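User: Show me a protein chain along with its predicted structure.
Assistant: Here is one chain, sequence first, then structure tokens.
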Amino acid sequence: MALTSSYLITTKNLDSFLNSLLTARAPEVFTQKFLESLEFKSTNDRLFIAMLKGLGFLDQTAVPTERYFKFLDQTQSKQILAEGIREAYEDLFSVNTKAQELTQQEVKSKLKTLTQGKPSDKVLGLMATTFKALVDYAEWATSSNPKPSNTKKSEEESAEKKTQSPKPEEVVTTPPEEEKKVLREAIKTIDHQLHYNIQIHLPESRDQAVYDAIFKSLKNHLF
């Protein structure tokens, strides 16, 4: 965790200072002489060097870092500064992930808690003012969009399925002749499996001719 202790006495020249870095060649070492060559000659301006160290633009020997050189690319300067601010005020962003949206008074209160009230009220105010001035110059666009949750994904898939037209069921048609053939085969199979049990109740009669007539009829119709 980290929380830079650097601050500016006044932030009125901050934007001009940062803009001047973009048009100047990076020095081998960021000295007070180089700062003056950028036309920042007051004693208050010397605090810019400590500020750059806190933001990770300079190492402790005032040599420009990779972040400094990335900042010089004007297509990403403000995003790189935002990156440096998040790192320099890491403790503050751990308390509120959107610390850049806090008011100056809210920042001051958070800093007082984080520093356990060690700096004076005036210094805390200057720290808060410096933070807000840096935040205003930087760009805080969201770097990536959150991935949809599994639930949302499932809902989207369900909605997509609903919008799709259902496929018509395939109807298999059988030609009439084929149906008749299948039916005949089925009847034939059933017929072979059937067993007939015929019971004949003969009438009482002493006339043999009656019985002969009955059995003759059976022979003609069943066999």
